Amino acid sequence: MQIAHMSDLHYCPENLAEADRCFGFAVDDAIRKNADVAIISGDSTDHRLDAHSPALLALARQIKRLADHCPVLMLQGTFSHEPFGMLRMLELIGAKHPIAIADRIGQIGLTDERQWKLSDTSDINHNFKLVVTCMPTVNKADLALMVGAENASAEMGEHLAALLGHFHESNSAYRRLGIPTVLTSHGTVDGSMNETGVPMAGLDHEFTAGALFSSGADACMLGHIHKHQAWRRDFDGNHQVIAYPGSIGRFHYGEIGEKHYLLWTVQPGFADFDAVVTPSRRMIDIEFMGIPNLDEIATVAKDCAGAYVRVTYKVDEEYAKTVDRNAIKQILGSCAEVKIVGEILSVQRQRCAGISRMPSIIGRFTKWCEVTDTSAAGLTDRLQLLQTMDPEDIASQIVRAEPLELKLAA
Predict the structure, then answer these.
(1) Same domain, 75 and 99
(2) Do 367 and 267 share a domain, yes or no?
(3) Can you list the positions of beta strands (E) in 72-228?
(4) Which of 277, 301, 316 is the last residue of a domain?
(5) Where is 67: in which H helix or E strand?
(6) Which helix (H) or strand (E) holds 140?
(7) CB 273 within 8 A of CB 220
(8) Is residue 147 part of a domain?
(9) Claim: this prediction has a pTM higher than 0.85
């Protein structure tokens, strides 16, 4: 069975062009390659959308195109991205094949008539063509009521691991009957890597790879992390695979790698996939520690044509007004977007008690060096030269490379 797996579409007004181009490409490719089923593993929207909004209408059109080709299963994602119940309206689309919304933990099967039917783990259905274990986003608040808010994050992983193990028996039974099994969920695997390359390690992540494998599903199709990655295991004659397709498009600066959807081949005891690259936009970061160098920007401007470019810099407070933002935008005028982000480094002042009462400049200077941890070696002599000699005499001695001699005032 071929399954098209997309995730983290993040439809919203701000992402509409990127999301619709990349998801539309994935839908076209899945139809062309004759996928049997499509699974979208959460975060189809970026936040609550009004029913008449262009972003939600665009998502609905793409879902209908996909459901006109094959049955579609959509998983509930993060509640802040997909308010609970919002996806239910997509079930009402009049497509050729059914659209199922998985917002409860459980199993659902695909019948010989290509209809979705809820499954009871204690009642094995011999007529399914595919069985999907659905693990939508879990509300930690529910767990906090049982174990306390301070323990909810740590306890979440243990409770989900036990729950995943509960499905092992039914998935094994379906595999023995020659029926492929899939687990789809939305959350973080401990040890995974986010889209900027930061490892996600800690006690408060929902899953471990071992817990997901323990479900007994042939394929684990995940959402939530925006970077494509996978884990594999050969055990007891079976080849299991866990994978994130990553987000369908590139929605933020700093994301590394290509963007994908996955075309899975799943059969009892074996799963694998092809990662299909989507036409995500190019996002380029140009960074400066100091005032942006316009000449350097000009040398890379040609390579940035058509891309989304972010220029970042850090400057001291007194140089902030010297940054020519308009010149940067003019040089990068062929880019689709130019975003300039500056960090102003505030001047840090340190109190030096008693310095104003010192009678001499040399004494004040020496005190300043002590407070600021600055070496005064050679500097006090030069300060005395400035006090006792004319600037022309100092300059002429430097030009003649003569050693500077201190002339004491009479």
Answers:
(1) yes
(2) no
(3) 72-75, 99-102, 106-111, 116-119, 128-135, 181-186, 192-193, 199-200, 219-223
(4) 277
(5) helix 54-67
(6) helix 140-147
(7) no
(8) yes
(9) no
In this predicted model, what pLDDT tens digit does every residue of 328-345 receive, in sequence order? 999 999 999 999 999 988
Residues 300 and 335 in one domain: yes
Residues in the chain: 410
Residue range of the domain that includes 243 = 2-277
Is there a domain that residue 336 lies in? yes
Q: What does the alpha-carbon distance between residue 61 and residue 9 come to, in Å, rounded to a whole number?
A: 14
Residues 189, 316, single domain; the answer is no
Helix (H, G, I), strand (E, B) or coil at 297: helix
The Cα–Cα gap between 394 and 402 comes to 10
Measured distance CA(306)–CA(335) in Å, rounded: 4
- What's the token pair of residue 57? 């209408």
Q: Is 56 helix (H, G, I), strand (E, B) or coil?
A: helix
The pLDDT value recorded for residue 350 is 62
Q: Residue 379 to residues 45, 79, 358, 371, 382: CA-CA distances in angstroms?
A: 63, 63, 18, 15, 5
* pLDDT number for residue 150: 61
Q: Are residues 261 and 131 in the same domain?
A: yes
- Alpha carbon distances (Å) from 1 to 27, 109, 177, 196: 17, 14, 15, 33
Structure tokens given for 288: 């400066």
Distance CA 10, CA 77 (A): 10
Q: What is the pLDDT of residue 51?
A: 86
Question: Which residue bears the tokens 């003649």?
Answer: 400
**Number of domains the chain is built from:** 3
**Which pLDDT value is given to residue 408?**
46
313: helix, coil or strand? Answer: strand
Q: What are phi and psi of 293, to 5 degrees?
A: -85, 110
- Give the pLDDT score at 410: 38
Tell me, what CATH number does 257's domain have?
3.60.21.10
What one-character DSSP code corresponds to residue 396?
A: H
User: What's residue 66's pLDDT?
Assistant: 98
CB atoms within 10 A of CB 319: 13
Residue 409 in any domain: the answer is no
Residue 308 lies in a domain: yes
Strands 2-6 and 37-40: parallel
Q: How far apart are CA 185 and CA 207, in angstroms?
A: 10
Q: Which residues of the chain have pLDDT under 70?
A: 139-154, 202-205, 347-352, 401-410
Residue 334: half-sphere exposure toward Cβ, Cα within 13 Å: 10
